[in-house]
Amino acid sequence: MHNLPESCFPPEIRNLFVSLGRVGFFERSVLIGSWVMPVYQVHRGIRYALRTTDIDFAVSLAYPRARMRADLERIITDLGFTNFISTEGIQKFSAGGYEVEFLAHRPGGKDTGTTAVKEWNINAQSLPFINILIDFAEETGLDGTTIRFPLPEAFFLQKLIVSPKRASEGKRRKDLEQCAILAPVLDDAVLQRLVQVQRFSRETKRYIAASCGSIGFPLQRLGIFISVEEKR
Amino acid sequence: MKVAENDAVVQGMLQDEHERCRVALGALERKVDGYPKGALNVRVKQVGGRRYSYHYLVSREGGRVVNRHIPKAELPTLQKQLKERDRCREEIRSYKSRIAYLEKLLRIPRRKRSPRAQPA
To answer: Which residue from A35, A44, A83, A232 puts its CA 20 to 30 A from A50's CA?
Structure first.
C-alpha cells in the first residue's frame, strides 16, 4: 500500500482525514469529490491542480449498525469545524472556508433527501450512483492511518453518469475535465468489470454515451454498446 | 492589447464556489441568529469577607444595555452556545471575505454584489 506524502493535503484537511481514519470510518466509507485527485496524482501519476473547498465523503450504509460507533459530529467540531444545516436540510461542517459533507447511496426514486447515519451520528445527503464509488475502492496510508478512495475507473464512470445531470455548467465541465485527465490511466478490464455488475437504464446509458462523446472517449472501452433504438 | 480567453472550467469553478459560499453564509447567519446575543460578564462582590461571583449576559436591546443574570446551572450551556456563536461568526467573516474576493475575480458589477459581502 502506498503512503501519501504529508504535502498531499493542507494540514487542516490532513487532520480531518486522519481523525476519521483513526475511528475506522474508512473501513467501508470513502473519500470522494475533487480531493481524490491529489491521491490519484500520487498513485497514478496524473496532474490536476484545481480543488474545490468542499470535502465530500461517501458513507457506506451496507450492514448499518444501530449503535453509534463514533460521534463524527463531535470529532469534526472538535477539530474547529462549525456544524450547520443548509437550506436543503443537509448537515455540513465548515472551517476556514472548507466545507465537509457526507453523501450516501440512494437506490432509486427522484427525491433527494437526507439519511440519518446513526453509526456515525451524522446526516448524509442521499444521491444515486454513490455505491459505484463505495463498492470499487482501494486504500492508501496517511500519517499511520488508512484512507479509502474510489478506484479511478469507478470515479470516472460515476462522473460520466452524473455530469450530464448537473444543473451547473461549471460543475459539468469540471466533471468532464477530471474524466479526460483520468482517461489515459484507466484499465479497460477494470472498467468493463465495473460496468458489467451495474444495471444501467437506457437513460443512464445515454448519459454515459453523451459524456464519452464530449471527451472523445470510445464507448467500447467501457464495454457498452448502444443500439440505434437506445440512442433515441 | 491581447486579452486571455476565459477558461470555462476555472470560471465555472469560481462561479460554483461563489454560489456555495453564498449558500453557506446564509445558513451560518441563520444559525447565529438562533444563539444568544451579548457578552458574558462576571461581577465579583465581597460580602462579610467572602467573595461571590455573579455572571451576567450583557446585550443591547433597542438602544438600551440589558444585563441579564445567569444562574450557575445555566452557565455551562450558555458558555458553550456563546463559544459556538463566536466560531460561527468567525466562519461568517471568512465566507464574506471569500465572497468579496470571488466577486472581484468574477467581475460582478458592484451594484450586483452581495450586500453583506462588501469588505470592511
So the answer is: A83
Pick the residue from chain A with its C-alpha nearest to B15: A170
Cβ neighbour number for residue B68 with a 10 Å cutoff: 12
Hey, are the CB atoms on B24 and A80 less than 8 Å from each other? no
Contact predicate A63/A176, CB 8 Å: no
Pick from A94, A173, A177: which is nearest to B24 by CB? A94
| Residues 6+ away with beta carbon under 8 Å from A170 | B8, B9, B11, B12, B13, B14, B15, B16
Identify all chain B residues contacting A125, using CB atoms and an 8 Å cutoff. none
Q: Is the ipTM of this complex over 0.95?
A: no
Cell numbers 474510489 correspond to: A150
Tens place of pLDDT per residue across chain A (232 aa) = 678 888 889 999 999 999 999 999 999 999 999 999 999 999 999 988 877 888 999 999 877 777 888 999 999 999 999 999 888 888 999 998 899 999 999 877 666 688 899 999 999 999 999 999 999 999 999 999 999 999 999 999 999 999 999 888 888 888 999 999 999 999 999 999 999 998 888 889 999 999 999 999 999 898 887 766 666 6
A174–B9 C-beta distance less than 8 A: yes
Return the domain boundaries, chain B: 8-117
Q: Which residues of A touch B24 (CB under 8 A)?
A: 84, 86, 92, 94, 99
pTM of the model: 0.83
